[in-house]
Amino acid sequence: MTEPAYVASIMKTALLRCPAGTRLSDAAVRMSERYCSSMLITRGDEVLGIWTEQDALMVDFADPGAAQCPVEQVMSSPITSIKPHATIDTAARIFDEKGIRHLLVVDDDETPLGIVSRNDIALEKGLESYLRLRKVENAMRSAPLTLAASLPLSEAVQRMRTSPACDAVIVRYDDHLGILTTRDLVRFVASYPGNMAIGRLASRPLLSINRDEALINARDRLIHHRLRHLAVLDDSEEVIGILGFADIISTEEYRHLDTLRDTLEQHDSAIRQSRQSLRLAEQVIESTLEGIMITDAGGRIEFVNPAFTHLTGYELDEAVGHTPGSLLSSGRQNADFYQNMWHAMHQHGYWRGEIWNRRKGGELYLEMLTVTAIYDEAGETSHFAAMFSDITQVRENEQRVHHLAWYDALTGLPNRRLIEDRLSLATRHARRHSQQLAVVFIDLDHFKQINDSLDHAAGDELLTLVARRLENCLRDDDSLGRLGGDEFIALLPNVGGVDEAVSVVRRMIDAISAPFDLRRRQVRVGCSLGVSFYPSDANSAETLIQHADAAMYRAKREGRNTWRLYSSDMEFHNNRRMTLETALRESLAQGEGIEAYYQPLFERDSGRLYSAEALMRWHHPQLGQVSPGEFIPLAESAGLILQLGQRLLDQVLQQLHDWLAAGLEPVPIAINLSPRQFWQHDLIDDIRTRLEAFAIPAELISFELTESTLLDRHQQAITALEALRDLGHRVAIDDFGTGYSSLSYLQDLPITTLKIDRTFIQALTEGNRRGSEAILAAVTGLAEGLDLQVVAEGVETHEQLDALARFPVQLIQGFLFGRPANAATFTTNWLIRRA
């Protein structure tokens, strides 16, 4: 009798674990990367539950935020366990009784040792004889769930969820089929693709198997192609079912396998004893997935198997009597190829290699071919046996993987790895031939605003359009690559000098500055470019890119939509920037060195203190006082501006709380909101929560925004501003007149104040005085008509103050009346106690 098989022999010991608090999307990323069907959810050393591919059906794909919850909220718990010395029969019975797909294997101390799944049973070696005797139609699931390719993902998942034991659906396109599985859903949880049509997400084409084939063929095909499911076809090539690993053998069947194994082993023994018989050879040949062709010694076909017909399209009666060359030759191999093949055959008795052939319908395919000489009793060649398989798709997949390794998936451009490799080769070539080459680093301006105002799909479309325009600006031998995000890099080999490179750069700026037609609207972006040259600026590819990057940052700092050539002082500024960014992160993390200063605003006519503006100051122990003009743009580019803004808001609220607790009468404090703060989806709730936490009346806080923050998302801006106003806050447009002012939208905004930029105030007494007076008259008249308060910023002299007397300006801010001061100084100089 056959010894029973134990769980320990089939369990997987590489356990994937995940902390309970991990976001579901991050957990899904880990599961996708490991190609696992389950992961243990833990807290410390304790196993709380399990999350499986089947559990992905419970995610609401209509809600983009559904994947952000902790994985412990969607895990299955408690997890059923089993001992390693339990029989596989026992595991199968538990699967069947509990309706689950995974068991945790533990030792006597309940320490996890491994995981065993339903699929692992189907992979057990001891089943092979049994699976050779059973046909696919005996195990398939009939009438599989079939959905239209146009169906949204969320609805497809809902259908799968309500269908019994459904882990895959067939996706029907106009002319072919695809498949969507629970493993795909885990990948979608990991990287939310949006509630798009499943036709864009399904895997295709759907591989199939005939219902009359043996289950062992189905299992081997699943393993070979690393698939989980096959479509089952009838004799008319119609899909009548679906077959997955879990279907190959049912748990009920497995309970009787000990008896079946004994029977099958006796049967196999009889087959082995008669394996030389023609009948068995024919069975093997008939059932194999490889095409088999037997010719006589002269090369004329005598026999072909069904797989040959399936692969080539030629039936047995069409092939017999012909030579393979006359039937299948593609014309891609020349006479030397066949001469070498037959030389190897005569010398070694066999030949193996890749060869292009042609199907009956004319389609070319690549096959892996093995030809072996068959000898008679006299040692003479009597026949040739050829076995082959279609490897076209394998080679195409290999080429696809190679392309993904070296090219950007979105734009099709070379990626960082390939462009750096090309640059290294180009520098060596330039060194040998004493040539110059240029590296151009390209970064789009205002791309994030478009990405945020439309969506990421529109942003991807824009990046593709940008890539095509940039390519059209290059010379024949130039290369363009995408480094990631909105950053591109161009390699210009053998440039005749700076002027030739600059000519290409200017074409790029002009091309990107032109409007783009994006989703039935026109959008504009610019680009900032930096250029470095070999050998004058650097000798290595890495340093050339770094220097071009530094030059690009200089272009951004000095106005955007322009270009700069690398110079040696940029390295100092680049190092300075890295030092400042590191220091700023440390200061924010430690809560030290960043302090709110307050600059007073006064009523012009009465001279009474009206309010104050909160300004951020940063003093670092080693770097000293860092200018806001330096660290605020740095915070924006480094993604720290949100933390900085929240730190300022909390400091102001705490200071107002302290003033009130001390019996003082604080004036309203104005806080500048960066674009990223303003466009937070939870801005209003966050502000309301903080006001309640510090017990501060809303009228003591006002907010200031620049025009550019509101420009691109006009209607959404109105909604957000109305919400701030409803909370009780006043809202001012800061630096008015320096951005892209549009009087048509200004009248719709629920704002209370315009702050005229200091440049117009300074020009009242110097430079273009008449022009500034005209602008001030227009702006203040507009504000008066819209019932808006006007603040004049940057008033530094009595002469400027006198010049403002002719205009309806209510409030004054500037050094003439008061400089920014820390809380202690502001308290001493300006605040009074309540009566």
From TrEMBL:
Residues 349-403 form the PAC domain. Pfam families: CBS (PF00571), EAL (PF00563), GGDEF (PF00990), PAS_9 (PF13426). Residues 277-323 form the PAS domain. Residues 577-834 form the EAL domain. Keywords: CBS domain. Residues 75-133, 140-198, 202-259 form the CBS domain. PROSITE patterns: CBS, EAL, GGDEF, PAC, PAS. Residues 435-568 form the GGDEF domain. This is EAL domain-containing protein. The lineage of its organism: Bacteria, Pseudomonadati, Pseudomonadota, Gammaproteobacteria, Oceanospirillales.
